[in-house]
Amino acid sequence: MSDYFDRVEDKKYTSVYKKETPDILAAFAAFDNAVFQEEGREIPLKYRELIALAVGITTQCVYCIDAHSQNAVKAGASEGELAEAAWVATAIRAGGGYAHGRLAFKLSGAHEH
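-> structure tokens emitted (113 positions)
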């Protein structure tokens, strides 16, 4: 997926959203701005950005990783905190594989024999 990533050029395609669905784009932008507003939330911005980074790593969204790693650092995150966020994402993905792997036993019927 990273072969398609172009930090500068890809932003030009936002014009399609602006042209075709400006109301939805505006609603999304307002929502995103509310989630990541600097003040007025219970979770400090640095931690919200680290959460977003971990989710981006988990979903393997290069755009999210790019934006939220930079935003986390701007909000005061250290490289150690970025590393731990990456490990949290890794643990959750691995745990999901472990937990959902149990479904293979359940759904195969092999365990009942």
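The chain has a mean pLDDT of 93.
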